[in-house]
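Students often ask what a holo structure prediction actually looks like on paper. The answer is less mysterious than it sounds. You provide the chain, you provide the ligand, and the output is a string of C-alpha cells encoding the 3D arrangement of the protein together with phosphoric acid mono(formamide)ester.
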Amino acid sequence: MQMPKSWISLKSMTPERFQDLIQKANQIKKLKRVSSRGMPLSVALIFLEPSTRTRLSFERASQVIGASVFVMAGSQSTSIEKGESLEDTLLNIEAMQPDVLVVRCGDDFDLETFSHRLTVSLICAGWGKKAHPTQALLDAYTLSGYFDSLKGKKVLYVGDAKHSRVLSSHFELFPNLQMKMGFFCPPELSVQHSSVTATYFENKSDALNWADVVVGLRLQKERLETQMSWYNFETKYQMTREDLLSLGRSVPLMHPGPVGWGNEFHMNLKDYQKSLILAQVTNGVYLRAALLFELGD
Ligand code: CP
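The corresponding C-alpha cells follow.
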C-alpha cells in the first residue's frame, strides 16, 4: 500500500493496515532503537497550542529512530507576533527542507486544505476539536496489547465528549476496527456522530455493565458554552474506584491526558491497578516512531 503523505484523517484505515503499523511499533518497542536505511529523517515540530505528551513523545520517537528534530513551541518570540500568518510560517519552515512537519494548531486553521500544498509529509499532532489521529492510533495500539482482539470491544466514554479532538479521531478509527462506542456524559457534553451508531446511557451502572474499557475525556471548562452544575457532574457522572471495583471484573481505564483528577475521574483512581494511562504514553512513543520510520523508509 502507498504510504500516506499526511496523517490527519483515519477514515480509510483498515484493520490490516493498522496491524502493519502496530507490528512495526512492537518491533521498535522491543529493540528500543532503530535506524533507517537512508539519510536520517529531519522532523519539524510546530506546536501552536500547549502540549506535554504529544510534543515530547514526537521528540522521543525521533530519538528512537535516529531522526533529527527542530521545534517551534508556541508563537512567542516568532514572527507570528509580528503578524505573519500560520500558513506563511509553515511554508517557510517547509522551505528549510525537513522531511516531515508535525503540527498542532487550532480549529481556525484549515490544516487539511493546507496539507495538499505541501511537498513534505505532515502529521497532525492535534487540530482544535477536529482531530488527533496519533492519539487515536496509540489508544487502539494500547488496547490491542490488552485484549486478544479489538473486534466487538465496547469503549465507554465519560467526561467531556463534546469538545474532544481525540474522540473525533476515535469516531474515524474505532468503527473501522469493529469496536463499539458508548457514552455516559451529561447531555451538555455528549455528542452524536452523523454516521457512527453509538450507545447512550443515562445510568452509571448500566453504562459500566456494558463496558469493556472506560475512556475519560478531560472536562474542558474553558470551552463550555453553557452553564452546567458541577455538583451534578461530580455526583452523577464522575468515575470512582468504587464504581469500577463493584463490577467484580477487570475493566481497564484509559485517558489521553491531561487527566482532570477530581473532575471526570475521582482522585481515588490515581492508583487503580488496571489503569493503562501511562502505558498509553509509553506506547505513544513507539507508535509515533513507527509512523515516522515509515515516512523515512
Ligand atoms: N494527549 C495529549 O494530546 O496530551 P498533550 O496535550 O499533553 O499533548
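The first strand starts at residue 6 and ends at 7.
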